Inverse folding.
């Protein structure tokens, strides 16, 4: 391999490494945004209906269920984002 090709390959691997570092530095902010987004949706839609059905004395439990559900959905969303980032931005093959 000539020096030019070798240098291009090392820059590509450095670029991929920088891309991974950038993604993992931003994912906590993205995760927090998705938790807030899903929490608002679940509190408005599911929380309101469950509060009407169960009553006001279960509001704490309804909020806890909504928060756990939104966190799980956010984890799933971040996982899908990572897989798509690896596939389309980093051009790494998918594992099976």
């Amino acid at each position: 391999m000539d020096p030019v090709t070798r240098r291009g390959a090392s820059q590509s691997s450095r670029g991929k490494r920088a891309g991974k570092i950038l993604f993992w530095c931003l994912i906590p902010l993205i995760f927090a945004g998705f938790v807030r987004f899903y929490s608002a949706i679940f509190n408005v839609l599911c929380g309101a209906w469950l509060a009407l059905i169960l009553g006001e004395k279960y509001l704490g439990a309804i909020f806890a269920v909504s928060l756990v559900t939104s966190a799980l959905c956010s984890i799933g969303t971040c996982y899908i984002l990572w897989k798509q980032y690896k596939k389309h931005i980093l051009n790494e093959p998918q594992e099976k």
The mean pLDDT is 87. The longest helix spans residues 3-54. The two ends are 31 Å apart (CA to CA).
